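Thread: "does anyone have the structure for this chain?"

Original post by V.I.:
We have the sequence but no experimental structure in hand. Need at least a predicted one for the grant figures.
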Amino acid sequence: MKANELKTKVLHYWRYTRNGYNYIATEAGKFNADVLVSNEKEIIECETKISRADLRNDFKKKKHSIYKNPSKWYASWIPNKFYFAVPETLTAYALELTQETVYGVIEVSSNKIGSRKKEVYCKIRKSAGVIQPKFKAKLHRQVLMRGSSELVRLRIKMFN
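Reply from O.Q.:
Generated one for you, tokens below.
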């Protein structure tokens, strides 16, 4: 499975399968989350990983030390929850790597993408714990702005 397909399935999951997450965007927020979603009560970040090395290396990013020990400096940019979204073939490895963390794991199926809203592509294999309990309006605004920008760019592509 390619990265764009994985991201699309995760976006579909939060928008259509999980009711109430009406705000979605990619490459959003201070740490360029692969997928960032909000329902005006909580903000969830999902990192999509397609290989063992990519998943393992993600833990080396600075944001994970920030998420473990949130500071006031980064408080406005920290989501309430964090998930790794991985293909079925990486689920066991992702569960192993996240065992001692509050991070959740979403398994993404290899089903072909269709046009039905009711199609189910993702399943939570490990629920995420809370990284930060407060809803951050600044990060929510980033989701809204990035989602709007993505829409405009996609529509412009139709004319080029």
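V.I.: this helps a lot. The longest strand covers residues 81-87.
O.Q.: and The mean pLDDT is 91.
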